[in-house]
Amino acid sequence: MRKLTYYVGMSIDGFIAAPDGAFDFYPVSESFLKDFLIGEYPDCLPTHVRQHLGVDGLENKHFDTMLQGRATYDAALELGITSPYKHLRQYVVSRSIDKSIDPDVEVISGDVAAKVRELKQEDGLGIYLAGGANLAAQLLEEIDELIVKVYPVVTGSGIPVFSAEFGVVDFTLESTRTFDNGTVVLMYSKRR
To answer: Between 20 and 30 A from 96 (CA), which of 33, 70, 88, 134?
Structure first.
């Protein structure tokens, strides 16, 4: 069975983006870029970033499918990009749009948890949950793994990692990796 992985970056105080959705303030060192983002998780880089870095031909290592919320997708649309992850099968979860503006992107407007359970039954690599906080909260019970990039900044406010009612879901720390710029990558698996 395939896993749903919430692969996300956050500030030390638990925010994935500024209140306006910006996330360009996270420091990325050369070693973090080469060793982790390109070396380990090139699948999670948008296609236009992969092209810019000259790594568009890299094979996907972990994921062949991705889910994103409407606000996350809107960030690509603002750049004029209608298919931000051409190297993955793409889904946008939205109740406000009913059909895709790009044939490479499928819109999920119904029961997203049921769709994730269906996707998990298929053969292939994992499913990358790109965000945002509301979608992650809706799928918390379906998330099998968390990969959290904790950047060495405090923002004070912003969009949290999860926007959910209080509840406890247990995860087990599987690995920790620290980079020269102070970024720490934590990998958790859901405790069963």
So the answer is: 88
State pTM to two decimals. 0.94
Domain 4-190, CATH: 3.40.430.10
Give the Cα separation of 113 and 125 in Å (integer): 18
State the DSSP string of the chain. -PPEEEEEEE-TTSEEE-TTS--TTS---HHIIIIIIITT-GGGS-HHHHHHHT-TTPPPSSEEEEEEEHHHHHHHHHTT-S-TTTTSEEEEE-SS--S-SSTTEEEE-S-HHHHHHHHHHSSSSEEEE---HHHHHHTTTT--EEEEEE-S---SSSEES----S----EEEEEEEE-TTS-EEEEEEE--
Please write the tens of the pLDDT for every residue from 93-145: 998 887 788 999 999 999 999 999 999 999 999 999 998 899 999 999 999 99
